[in-house]
Amino acid sequence: MLRTALPKIVTDTLPGPRSAALIARRAEAIPSAIKCIYPVAIARGEGAMVEDLDGNRFLDWIGGVGVLNIGFSHPEVVAALKEQADRFFHAMFNMMTHEGYVALAEKLCEIVPVMGGKKRAFFANSGAEAVENAVKIAKAYTGRPNIIVFSSGFHGRTNLAMAMSAKKALARGMGPFPEGVYRAEYPYLYHAPAHLAEDEQLEWFLSDLERVFEEGTLPEYTAAIVVEPILGDGGFAGVPIAWAQRVRQLCDKYGIMLVADEIQCGWCRSGKWFVSNYWQEAGAAPDILCTAKSIAAGAPLSAIVAREEIMQAVPDGVIGGTYCGNAMACAAALKVIEVMERDHLAERALVIGEKVLGRYREWMEEFPCIGDARGLGSMIGLEFVRSRESREPAGQLVYAIVQECARNGLLVESAAKDGNVIRFLAPLVMTDEQTEAGLHILHDAIAAVTR
């Protein structure tokens, strides 16, 4: 059974002949801007495993970039989709009511940790749409035009989301962008000024945020501060709880909405439903939370949740859309939540994460090129540097490691501005044997490349 199988390469070359033929067709029909660096053409996927068209088996630690926390082709989600398909595929929610949308909104209002009592939720199709809708809501509620985002942040590829995202290589030639977007330094502690103690580093990052109020947008013109609790594409560094508490205080002081972009880090990945659960325990819950990725196991869906007074400030017709809250996607999401609760996937994330992060930290003794190993639950970053003293990024080294892993049946992905972080986003249904197999392949790939 593929679900419990281990990686195995059976062809003499990668990609194999059938995969190579499909990849060649791709090259002729698809814009080259949509890149793929992996020699894989998927035939089927189960759990954390992928089988390509030639019978090669790969362990997937990318998980659709955080989409597959419950794995490929979960049988209960497949059954839920088939059942929904037998009734209807789609009913535009702006025109008629369907129970899946309502039931899913009710469930999200129950589990999503945002400030306030009564909550409301609505749906979009992608992470970028969720972020843009969160900004719309913040502007509607506050009546203010500007937002603050952070260095290393990534929020999507729509026009506003590109303006919000720090990595402008992903927005080359796409301007002009919307006005009213200002940027502060993300509290990426590994790259804080080296001469500062940890408490001084925290103050340094907070003072940079205050600088934006002085030089960019006055507090009374600022609708929202939008932040990823753990950076995704930006490098898998997380916000210190003390920083979140102080930013919450700033938002309360000035009437600014704190927006948590949990597109990638949500859905049990951190060891709780959301990283914002940790913030909530520390008295720093966000006002608005937007999420997507693993919400529906691969069906296109995203969600925005906030307390009622915020949501009800939005004018009629400003939110919603044709496919938003599609019946098939809602059916998938309801089953995903049921499976995650029943199978304790948040707790499973902590178990997997403890093993992986522990092994990464052991490797730091062996490989001087590893500068940092960090994570929360099963969202873990392994950062490679040219030297630990300079902390200069080693992006080409990581690219070589990624390729070496793929040749041996493990799919891993890079992150950070210079591509020098390997991100761990393996499905939380991965078996212990698969975890060990993946760690073995990654260790040997680092050894082979650095040798």
Can you put this structure into words, describing what you see?
By secondary structure, the chain is an alpha/beta fold. It folds into 2 domains: 2-60 and 344-450, Aspartate Aminotransferase, domain 1; 77-342, Aspartate Aminotransferase, domain 2 (3-Layer(aba) Sandwich), CATH 3.40.640. It is built from 14 helices and 15 strands. It has helices spanning 17-29, 63-66, 75-87, 99-111, 127-142, 159-164, 198-215, 241-254, 275-281, 308-311, 327-342, 345-366, 395-407, 432-450, and strands spanning 42-46, 49-52, 57-60, 119-124, 146-150, 181-184, 222-227, 257-262, 288-291, 302-307, 370-376, 379-384, 410-411, 413-415, 421-424. The strands form 3 sheets. The chain has a 7-stranded mixed β-sheet, with helices on both faces. Strands 1-2-3-13 form a 4-stranded mixed β-sheet. Helix 3 packs antiparallel against helix 11 and helix 13 (395-407) crosses helix 14. The longest helix has 22 residues, at 345-366. The radius of gyration is 22 Å and the shape is globular. The two termini are 36 Å apart. The model has no long low-confidence stretch (mean pLDDT 97).
| CATH fold-type name of the largest domain | Aspartate Aminotransferase, domain 2
Q: Indicate the radius of gyration in whole angstroms.
A: 22 Å
Low-confidence stretches: none
Secondary-structure element pattern, one letter each? HEEEHHHEHEHEHEHEHEEHHHEEHEEEH
> Per the principal axes of the C-alpha atoms, what is the gross shape?
globular
The main sheet orders its strands as 4-10-9-8-7-5-6
Count of discrete domains: 2
What percent of residues are in strands? Answer: 15-25%
- The CATH class designation of the largest domain is Alpha Beta
Mean pLDDT: 97
In the CATH hierarchy, the architecture of the largest domain is 3-Layer(aba) Sandwich
